[in-house]
Amino acid sequence: MGARGFRLGNSKEPVREHAQAPEAARKQWRRVANVGLLVGGYGIGQGAIFAVQTWLFAQGKFDLLSAFGTHFSFLMLGIFVIDAGSTTTLARQVARLPADGSRTAIWRLFWDTAVVRLSTAVVMAAGALMVALLPISDPLSRTYLLASVPGLLIWSANAVGMLDGLKLSGLSGLTGAIAFATSAFALALTADASPETAGFVLGAAFSLGHAVTVLAQWIVLIRLGRGPRWSRPCREGVVRSARDGFALLLQFIPGQLILRAQLLLSATFLGTEATALFIYAKQIVVAMTMLVGFVTRVDFPALVERAAACEHLGLSAILRSQVTSIVSAVTLALGTLLACLAALTVPQYGFSNAAHLLAAYSPSIVTISALLIMIQGMAAMADYAASAKIVAVSTLVGIAVSYAMIGPCGIYAFVIGEMSFHLLGSALMYLHLRRRAFAAAAKPVHHPA
């Protein structure tokens, strides 16, 4: 008995460590799988659109490329607004539930958020209808917007935030590829169609893609035993979802607006061909940025847990928890620059012009990733209001710089404007985090008697 007791007593910690090892391995594998599925889904969806855009660019279809890029960009902004920040806020709320949290608690959060999203979708759909029916709307815009309205309404039922909060972000990314793939297929079909036909086909593909995406997300939840359960939305929950969601939107909407403002500036001052070139180069930059965003998105639930365990997350803690994102951003920026150097050897089809612009944009992959990492850290601490103010101010500066520089610098004014936005936003967030750290350190510590 003594020998047995001695063996057990001395092996207590090794046994515990041995038991923890498989769990750590499972978490790491889940993280790698989620990143892989997010990247794969994005590659399928955005990759399909990029391939068709490349074909249109080579064929000199600048009018269609410019029209599609502009309309699709504004519709995706509508999708972003309808989501009402729930990709982050709902994920944060679900991630904070106990590991054995009931389905009822999870779905109560969902239905509270769905009320906010549906209300927003109705407003966005009404706005799209008004623009489509304006006398000045061209035939492609009119049919595109009219056929896209169902997609805007359907997106209010998406389950992205729930899947992310349940640490299944890879599956939400994989299903999200559907909406992009359908638009890419429609774009290829309408290369030689009339404006009215092209607009209707592209709008119908937008609505169909988002409908199938939402259906696929719900099927995933059902297959995983997390199927829908009705819970009557409560006033307190709806107000909380609206407050947190729109506060978070105010952080990201300005950053989304700078791209749309630059699109309008390009169309107004630089013409169709330059706008098509800008859309094509910017598509690649956005793709690289999204790849980094997938890593930060997978790490977000763990960042929320860390924020819940302490009163304040300092800059060093935010950066340490997202080292993979930083390395990914630098690697992708360098890879983009090397690809541009290779593209300069292919002068035909105008790709050398795109390579010059994209090379100038490549550093912005690092700067915008740094800004997104800091925004994620502040979101984990629910510091939405301060982040929103900083991003709003920085965006206004970026738009102003773009407008001021478009005369002397042409299309490269947009690179200067965007870099100004990223660097100013990062600097202001750094100063805000320092003030929070000093305030937390200055608080008196109360010891129990």
Automatic annotation (TrEMBL):
Regions crossing the membrane: 35-58, 115-137, 143-163, 170-191, 197-224, 245-265, 277-296, 326-346, 358-375, 387-406, 412-433
Domain of life: Bacteria
Biased composition (Basic and acidic residues): 13-22
Keyword Protein biosynthesis among record annotations: no
Keywords: Membrane, Transmembrane, Transmembrane helix
Residue numbers spanned by region Disordered: 1-22
The protein's name: O-antigen/teichoic acid export membrane protein
Naturally occurring in which organism (per UniProt): Rhodopseudomonas thermotolerans
